[in-house]
Each structure stands twice: as C-alpha cells, then as structure tokens.
C-alpha cells in the first residue's frame, strides 16, 4: 500500500514501543491480516497511528481467550478507507457480546464455585452426592456438565 506519509505515522519500532509488543508480534499480526502497513519512499514500513487501537484490541481480546480468527472477523468489519468511529467499533464487536457474556459467566463460576460440584464425574466434593449422585450427569456427556453442559443441565 502506498500513500502520502503523515508526521503521525509510525515506524515498526515506534508502533512496537507504543503498543508494548515485540516487532515480531507486529509482523505476525500483519501476516495474519490483522493490521496493515505501507512503504514510504525509502521503502521503510510505516503504520498509520490508528493501528495502535487495532493492536490494543487484539492484545486485550487475546488476553481473555478470544481466538485470532474471531478477532479477525471483527477487524475485517471495520472500514479501512476512513477513520473508524466509536459506532463502527461497537457494531463490529456486537457479535462478541454473547460470547463474552458467556465467558464472563463461566469465569465468574470458576472464581466463585471452584469448591462446589461441577458435575465432572470425580464425585470428590462434599456436594457431589447432592448435585451428581452416582455420576448421573456423566450420562449426559463428558466434562464438567454443571458448568458447560446445556443450560437446562446447569439449572
Ligand atoms: S465436582 Fe466432580 S462430580 Fe462433583
């Protein structure tokens, strides 16, 4: 991509420093199509300052377990030919709402109920005879049935 350089454009080193990631991470993000650069007349890679926000979103989303493919889906919905508005960001991220709500609920359970029966089949917690007598939840499928089974099973 070529364009007129702006004083606010960043070198890869400047972007890495400001974003708090190694240059190699930026190259990876770029290879994955998550961020874009262009070449100045000296053939140096330059980044629009707005790429900082994309990198920040990628890092935060990754830190809470959002897959790169899911991040890419959101970033691909954003315009590249103009400044991205707050509304653009909100609309692009809307599909994440349900997924993030589910993760928040699961993380809250993990934080608050680690000592309770989760229906995993171990029958080793005091509450297991009450919530999973004779491992009956095991007949509904594998894993911690009370946490990640169907909503009916969690009730
Ligand atoms: S905690 Fe594993 S079955 Fe109850």
From TrEMBL:
Protein's GO biological process: response to oxidative stress
One of the Pfam families matching this protein, by short name: MerR_1
Matches recorded under InterPro entries: DNA-bd_dom_put_sf (IPR009061), MerR-type_HTH_dom (IPR000551), MerR_fam (IPR047057), Redox-sen_tscrpt-act_SoxR (IPR010211)
Keyword list, A-Z: 2Fe-2S, DNA-binding, Iron, Iron-sulfur, Metal-binding
Sequence intervals crossing the membrane: none
PROSITE patterns xrefs: HTH_MERR_2 (PS50937)
Any GO MF annotation of the entry: DNA-binding transcription factor activity
The HTH merR-type domain, residue ranges: 9-77
SUPFAM superfamilies: Putative DNA-binding domain
Protein name in UniProt: Redox-sensitive transcriptional activator SoxR
Natural source organism: Limimaricola litoreus
């Amino acid at each position: 991509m070529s364009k007129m350089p702006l004083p606010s454009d960043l070198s890869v080193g400047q972007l890495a420093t400001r974003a708090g990631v190694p240059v190699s991470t930026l190259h990876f993000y770029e290879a994955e199509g998550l961020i874009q650069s262009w070449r100045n007349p000296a053939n140096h890679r330059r980044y629009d300052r707005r790429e900082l926000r994309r990198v920040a979103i990628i890092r935060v989303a990754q830190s809470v377990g959002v897959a790169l493919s899911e991040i890419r889906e959101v970033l691909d919905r954003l315009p590249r030919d103009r400044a991205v508005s707050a509304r653009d960001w909100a609309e692009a991220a809307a599909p994440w709402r349900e997924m993030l709500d589910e993760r928040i609920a699961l993380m809250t359970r993990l934080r608050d109920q680690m000592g309770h029966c989760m229906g995993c089949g171990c029958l080793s917690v005091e509450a297991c005879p009450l919530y999973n007598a004779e491992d009956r939840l095991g007949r509904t499928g594998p894993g911690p049935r009370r946490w990640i089974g169907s909503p009916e099973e969690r009730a």
